[in-house]
Amino acid sequence: MFDSALNILTYLSQGLWTTVSIFLTAALFSYIMAFIAGLSRMMKNPIIRGVTAFYVEVFRGTSLIVQLFWLYYAVPILFDIHLGSNWWVGVIAIALNYGAYMSEVVRTSILAVDKGQTEAAIALNLSPVQRMRHIILPQALRLMLPEFGNYSIQILKGTALVSLIGLTDILYYGDIYRSTNLSEGPLAYLMVLIMYFIIALPLIWLSKKGEKIARKGVAS
Amino acid sequence: MEPIVQYKDIHKSFGDTHVLKGINLDIRPSEKIAIIGPSGSGKTTIIRLLMTLEEPTDGDIIVDGTNLWKMEAGGDGKMKKANEKHLSKVRNEIGMVFQHFNLFPHKTILDNCVTPLVQVRKMSKKDAVELSRQMLDRVGLNDKYEAYPSHLSGGQKQRVAMARALVMKPKIMLFDEVTSALDPELVGEVLEVIRDLADNEDMAMVLVTHEMDFALEVADRVLFLDGGVIAESGTADEVINTSDNPRLQDFLRRFRDA
Ligand SMILES: Nc1ncnc2c1ncn2[C@@H]1O[C@H](COP(=O)(O)OP(=O)(O)OP(=O)(O)O)[C@@H](O)[C@H]1O
Ligand SMILES: [Mg+2]
Question: Which residues form the signal peptide (chain A) (predicted)?
Answer without folding.
Answer: none
